[in-house]
Design a protein that fits this description.
Order of helices and strands: HHEHEHEEHEHEE
Structural class: alpha/beta
Number of strands: 7
CATH superfamily: Vaccinia Virus protein VP39
Largest sheet: 7 strands, mixed
Strand content: 15-25%
Number of helices: 6
Strand order of the largest sheet: 3-2-1-4-5-7-6
Shape: globular
Distance between the termini: 24 Å
Length: 205
């Protein structure tokens, strides 16, 4: 299995935020999750790989108990500043998506906005197992990833529907996968990367 140094990974992600907003940090929630906000989530909610916290903050604003975790300390610092400015109570922590059990709690809903597609084939099952440690039976993962329909090879790797179904074949039920667009800070709306939005339910503990 490919080993990943948590320290080097944290440094790499942190550097993406120190030079200004990275391409995925659009300063608002992804439209796909905005549409889901009223009805698709149950507290407590985990925003896994929360970056500067827009999804966790959106959910807290709607009355959900929200936790955000990210490997990048700079992103969490910025997220906490946003929460303070907006008067929102959100649990924002530096932590590893590959070791979510370290959070010491479980969740009924999870947001994954562009996390799954960052992992290698070897680390995908580690990530899925990490999610399984914290998602309650019957809990729902809402996952947004780049799809293979995005042309070129710039940015993160592309993910197919078949890969999503394979990754979550044991202890999960992939209930729905729909076509979406990933909002980024570059290009025009028509050039936005293609994405898959998956609704995945935890079926066993």
């Amino acid at each position: 299995m490919t080993e990943r140094s948590p320290r080097s990974a944290a440094s790499g992600w942190d550097s993406a935020y120190r030079g200004g907003p990275p391409p995925w940090d659009i300063g608002r929630p992804q439209a796909a999750f905005l549409r889901l906000a009223d009805g698709a989530f149950t507290s407590p909610v985990l925003d896994c790989g929360c970056g500067t916290g827009e999804h966790a903050l959106m959910l807290a604003e709607r009355g959900f108990e929200a936790t955000g975790v990210d490997l990048a300390a700079t992103a969490i610092r910025l997220a906490r500043q946003k929460a303070e400015r907006r008067g929102l109570s959100v649990d924002l922590r530096v932590g590893d998506a590959l070791d979510l059990a370290a959070l010491g709690q479980t969740f009924a809903s999870v947001v994954d906005s562009g996390v799954f597609h960052t992992f290698s084939d070897e680390l995908r099952p580690v990530y899925v197992a990490s999610l399984a440690d914290v998602v309650r039976p019957g809990g729902t993962l809402h996952l947004l990833s780049f799809s293979e329909l995005t042309p070129g090879d710039a940015g993160p790797r592309r993910v197919t529907q078949a890969e999503l179904r394979e990754a979550f074949c044991d202890g999960w039920s992939v209930e729905e996968i729909t076509a979406e667009r990933f909002e980024v800070t570059y290009g025009s709306p028509v050039d936005r990367p293609h994405a898959w939005l998956a609704r995945i339910v935890r079926t066993s503990s």
